[in-house]
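Hey team,

Filing this mostly as a record. A colleague (T.K.) asked me to run one chain through the structure pipeline before their review meeting, and I want the input and output archived in the tracker in case anyone asks later how it was produced. No errors, nothing strange. Just documentation.

Input sequence:
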Amino acid sequence: MKITEVDFWRPFITSLEVINGESVILSVALDGDGDWQGYGEERVTDDNLECISVEEALQIDPTLASLPDLKPGQGAWRENRDSEWQLEE
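Output structure:
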C-alpha cells in the first residue's frame, strides 16, 4: 500500500522531535491495523509519542510520498532524508 493512496485522516504515529522539525523520519512501518508509524534517530518513549494524520505527516515530510508499497507489518528505512527508501526484510 502506498502512503499516498490511503485516507489522509489515517493515524500516523511519530515523535515530537519529528513534528517540531528536530528529527528526520528515517524508518516507517505500516502496522497490522493499517496505521502508519515513522521515526528518526531519537529515542522514542511514551513521553514523546504523538498521533497525527497521514496528511500532516506528508506535510511535515513530503519525501514520504516516495515510500515503496508496504504490506501490513512491513517497514522501510533510509540513511538520511536524501536517501532512497529500502524495504525491510
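Quick notes for T.K.: The two ends are 16 Å apart (CA to CA). The chain has a mean pLDDT of 95.
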